[in-house]
Amino acid sequence: MTTSKDSGLTWLGLATIWFGGMISVPSLLIGSTLVAGLPFWDAMLAGFLGFSVVVAFMSLESVAAVEQRLDTVELASSAFGRKGAQLVVGLALGISLLGWFGVQSGVAGSSIAKISQLSFGVSISPALASLFVGLAMMLTAVFGFKYLKWLNFIAVPCKVLLVVYALHIAFQSHSFEVISKYRPDPAHKLDFLTAIGLSIGFFSVGGVISPDYARHARTRLDAILGSVLGLLPAAMGLAACGAMLAIIQNTYDIVEIYAKLGMPILALSVLIIATWTTNVMNAYSSGLAINQVLHWPAERRQTATLIAGVLGSLLAASGILGNFMEFLMLLTMMVPPIAGVLVSDYWIARSYTAQAPSGFNLNGLVAWGAGVASMFLINHPLRSILGICVAGGLYFVMVKLRPATQLRAMS
Asked: Is the pLDDT of residue 254 over 80?
C-alpha cells in the first residue's frame, strides 16, 4: 500500500482511472435514457445534478481514505465493527461487483460472437468468448493497481477518439440544431426528479467503493480533484454523446454504429476497450472485498481477485446471468446506504476510530438496515439518495443518543 506523498497517485492518475471506468458502452445508455423523456438540455441538467450528488459523497469518502490509507471495507470497520464490515460491507460489495463483472464479460462475449458471425462468417461460442474475455480482464486486475493506472493511460485516449469519431459520423448528415430542437414523445415524458435519481443510481456503487482507489492518492486535494475531474467530465460527456447519438442515429450503441458502417474491426475494438477498463475496476474492488470477508492478509489480495475474476467469468460463460440479474439488482440496492454510514461516521458524527470494535457495531448495522429498508419501501429512482440520507441521519442520531455505547461490539 502506498503511504508516501511522493510516491502516491497524483490527481491525474486517479482521474484517469475513474475516467476509464466511466467511458463504456453502458455509460452512453444513461444519456439515451434521459433524452427519451426530456429535451436535450433538461436531460443534461438532470444528469449533472445527479452525478454531482455522487461526486459529493465520493469526495468525502476519498479524503477519509487518504487520511487513513484504508480501503472501503477497512474504513467501514469503525461504524460497523470489524466483523460487521467484513460480513455486511464485504459481502454486499464483493458479490455485487463480482456479479457485474460477470454481466460485463457476458455482454462483451456475446457481442464478440455476434459481430464475428455477421461480419466475418465465423461462428464463435458466446460462452467461450465470455469466459476468455473475462479471464483476460481479470488478469489485469490481479497484477495490481499500478497496471490498472497504466491501462487507463493507454485506453482512455482511445475510448475518447472512438466516441468522438462516432459523433463525427453522426453530424456529417445532421446539424446541432436537430439536437437543440429535439422534443421527446409526450407518451414517454420523464419526471425531472426521476431523471436525477436515475443519474445518481447509475454510479452510486462506484462512488461507494472510491476509497479502494483514493487511498493511493498523494494528498487530500489529489483525492478530491481525481474524483471530481475523473467522474463529472466523463459522465457528462458520455451522457451527452449517448443522448445525441440516440437523437440522430436512433441508437446510443457506438458498437452498432461502427458495425453498420462496415467497420467490424473498429466495432470490436470499441467493445473490448470500452468494457476492459470498467470491468477491471469491478474485479479489483471485488477482490479487495472478498479478501476482507475471508480474513486474509493484504498480501493475498491477488488470490482474492483471481477468485472474483474466475467466478465472474464462469457466471458469464454459464449463461445464468439472465436469472441472476434480479438478485444482482436487489443486492446493488444494499450498497448506497453504506456511503451514508461511512460519511456520517467520519464527517458528521465525528465518531470514527482506528480502534474499531472487533465484533459488530449495532449503530452502523441498524442505520444501514434502515437505509436499505427505505430503498425497498419507496419505488422511486430518488431512493438511492434517500437510502444514503436515512442511513447517515440515523447513524448520527444513534451515536448522539448512545455516546457511551456507540462502539460496543457483539462477539
From this structure: no
Residue 402 inside a domain? The answer is: yes
pLDDT at 95: 85
Alpha-carbon distance 187 to 175, whole Å?
Answer: 26
Cα(344)–Cα(324) distance, rounded to whole angstroms?
32
Grid coordinates of 6: 511522493
Q: Give the three-state DSSP class for 209.
A: coil
Asked, for residue 327, whether it belongs to a domain, the answer is yes
Going by the DSSP 8-state scheme, the letter that residue 116 receives in this structure is: I
Q: How many domains does the chain have?
A: 1
Q: Is 125 helix (H, G, I), strand (E, B) or coil?
A: coil
Distance CA 316, CA 282 (A): 14
In a domain, 335, yes or no: yes
Helix or strand holding residue 170 (H, E) = helix 145-171
Average pLDDT over residues 187-208: 88
Q: Is residue 312 a contact partner of residue 105, using CB atoms and an 8 Å limit? A: yes
Supply the pTM of this predicted model: 0.83
Q: Supply the CATH number for residue 245's domain.
A: 1.10.4160.10
**Residue 410 pLDDT > 50:** no
> Partners of 9 in the beta sheet?
217
Q: What is the average pLDDT across 160-185?
A: 86
CA distance 239 to 398: 39
Residues whose CB is less than 8 angstroms from the CB of residue 165 and which lie 6 or more positions away in sequence, other chains included: none
pLDDT digits (tens, 9 = 90+) for 73-110: 999 999 999 999 988 888 888 888 888 888 888 878 88
Which structural domain, as residue segments, surrounds residue 250? 11-410
Sequence letter at residue 127: A
Q: Kindly tell me if the per-residue pLDDT of 14 is higher than 70.
A: yes
3 falls within a domain: no
Q: Residue 12 to residues 23, 176, 223, 231: CA-CA distances in angstroms? A: 16, 32, 10, 12
Q: Are 198 and 286 in contact (CB under 8 A)?
A: no
Per residue in 51-76, pLDDT tens?
999 999 999 999 999 999 999 999 99
